[in-house]
Amino acid sequence: MRKYPTLKEVEEMRARGFDTSVLVEQLELAKRGEALEALVAETHEAFAGVTLGSGTGLLEANGLDDYASEQKLAEYRANDEKLDWKSISLKRLNRYSSSLSFFDAEGMRFHLPAFLIADIRGLYDFELIYNLAQSTLIEDQCTLLTPEQRAVVRKYLEFAAQEEEFERDHDHIRRALENYWAK
């Protein structure tokens, strides 16, 4: 998702004499940005304490995508973050974006909040929407999500459904919200 101005930035624009119509538009965008930051806080709360357990890790999933040997997968697993999804770097999320298609349910539950927050803040370089709204794997991958975690994903998709940048995905998002994410 795109980055939004903060209220402080809008005030700075006002102080520099920006046109009123620009300020009104930027203020609306700042309100959307605040709503997204509230969703980030909800995400932190809903996924607090989630660990990887025996689930598929980020590097391990990338190894599955590359048809790595069992030995190499074990090596990747040893280097995967397993306890704190918040410590997974943005660089790793972007580098191993294809891992989303190779997570099992535990792996998805552990990594999803990191991907959501990165995308909400406009820092994820790929499209998370596909994995949540179109992938045929999503029902199996998200079986372990709690109602609170599912609600976070639903809010994310509802927000994306209003975004111009996802216009080509609006039908997929709507169907996903009406079907799998409605539960």
Report on this structure.
The protein is mainly alpha-helical and 183 residues long. The protein has one domain. The chain is built from 10 helices and no strands. The mean pLDDT is 95.
How many separate helices?
10
- Compute the number of structural domains: 1
**What is the 3D form?**
globular
Largest sheet, in brief, is: none
Our Rg estimate from Cα atoms comes to 18 Å
Structural class comes to: mainly alpha
Relative helix content: 55-70%
Q: Span from first to last CA? A: 25 Å
Order of helices and strands: HHHHHHHHHH
Number of strands: 0
Low-confidence stretches: none
Mean pLDDT over the full residue set: 95
Q: What's this, in brief?
A:
The protein is mostly helical.
Which features does this protein show?
183 residues, 0% strand, globular, mainly alpha, 60% helix
Please describe the topology of this protein:
Layout: H1 7-15, H2 20-46, H3 58-65, H4 70-79, H5 90-95, H6 105-120, H7 128-133, H8 138-141, H9 147-160, H10 170-178
Helix pairs in contact: 1-2, 2-6, 2-9, 3-4, 9-10
